[in-house]
Design goal:
76% of the residues lie in helices and 0% in strands. It is mostly helical. It is built from 14 helices and no strands. It has one domain.
């Protein structure tokens, strides 16, 4: 990717962050008090997300290797992963920013088709793991917590939604889904001609991408289940963020279960409002409704939403900064052994 294109992504994300900060309707006094209240808990919260990004990059690497060699170092994948998520956070519609950026960064290494299919597969796996997280969270809540009629109806609706989502993704993994997405776009008023022209010009490429998607599940089961396990475990590890914050308000025995429920409900509610940059409003509303349903004080939901917003802005800023860092194409270094011994110099001769 050229520096000019990177600058466009960087500038767009920077403008989005400035707008989000200006529309962050929290007084400085409230923000400062909440940050002081979080105290040293901010350190594990911020570090937790570094671990999650490492797991995301590892998932992406497994997916790339499922279709051939991966000539990209893990550190570059981690850099692009963090920047991609930053752009997704900062742009309306999410995938409008991060996924094109990741494809363009990987294109020089693995070609446009493999880059596109790997990014699509990672996005599919990320969402697929979310559906399983929501479904298992419902089961955990039903098993371990008392359920009244209202909560029962809500959980039943969520379970049906998850079952439908899992079914659609299983079908997509078996048959591919890129061509079907283009067909769906063609049914949107005003986009029919564009979709038909795009499919006609890229028919072979789209079919090859779909073939690579279906091959991950049918021929590379190790890669499929390995990437799924990482993403699924990552969703439950994310609950630790809320668990850390709840520690400041209660020492109840079921605090971890409460953290799982709050994250599951809030992430589901916020993802339904995917068109909002940084899910502004949706995330806060989800925290408020989920904490109130657990009979927790209103200040808990507000506190969690503020700290999560600070964490998101922190990592979004880092991700945007990484767009401008270390952009030269790699020279083949894959391990510390490569660093110790330059490839263009013969190994030293032993003295006789």
């Amino acid at each position: 990717m050229g520096n000019k294109t990177r600058n466009i992504f960087f500038f767009f994300g920077l403008v989005a962050i400035v707008i989000m900060i200006l529309t962050f309707k929290v007084s400085f006094v409230t923000l400062w008090n909440d940050l002081k209240r979080a105290g040293y808990w901010l350190i594990p919260i911020l570090c937790l997300w570094l671990v999650l990004y490492v797991m995301n990059a590892w998932t992406w690497r497994i997916i790339i290797k499922g279709s051939g060699d991966c000539p990209v170092s893990f550190w570059r994948l981690l850099k692009v992963t963090i920047s991609g998520f930053a752009l997704n956070y900062a742009t309306p519609g999410g995938l409008m920013g991060g996924e094109p950026y990741k494809i363009m960064e990987m294109k020089p290494y693995i070609g446009v088709q493999r880059a596109t299919s790997s990014v699509v597969l990672f996005g599919m796996m990320h969402i697929f793991a979310h559906f399983w997280f929501w479904a298992t969270a419902v089961m955990l809540y039903v098993i371990l917590m008392p359920v009244n009629v209202t909560m029962g109806i809500l959980l039943f609706c969520i379970a049906c939604f998850c079952a439908l989502g899992i079914y659609l993704f299983v079908k997509g993994y078996k048959n591919g889904m890129v061509v079907k997405i283009i067909h769906f776009i063609g049914r949107i008023p005003g986009l029919k001609k564009w979709a038909a022209k795009f499919e006609a010009n890229h028919q072979n490429d789209l079919q090859n991408i779909d073939n690579q998607i279906s091959q991950l599940q049918s021929q590379n089961k190790k890669s499929f289940y390995g990437s799924f396990a990482l993403e699924f475990v990552g969703r439950y590890m994310q609950c630790l963020e809320i668990y850390f914050m709840l520690q400041m308000f209660t020492d109840a025995d079921d605090i971890l279960l409460h953290a799982i429920y709050i994250l599951a409900f809030t992430s589901l509610f916020a993802n339904l409002l995917f068109f909002l940059p940084l899910q502004l409003g949706g995330r806060e509303g989800g925290f408020a409704m989920s904490t109130s349903s657990l009979n927790l004080p209103g200040e808990v939901g507000i506190f969690i939403s503020i700290i999560c917003r600070v964490r998101e802005l922190f990592w979004t800023a880092i991700g945007l900064a990484l767009i401008k860092v270390a952009n030269n194409k790699e020279t083949g270094i894959r391990s510390f052994a490569d660093l110790r011994q330059p490839k263009d110099e013969p190994p030293p001769q032993k003295e006789l």
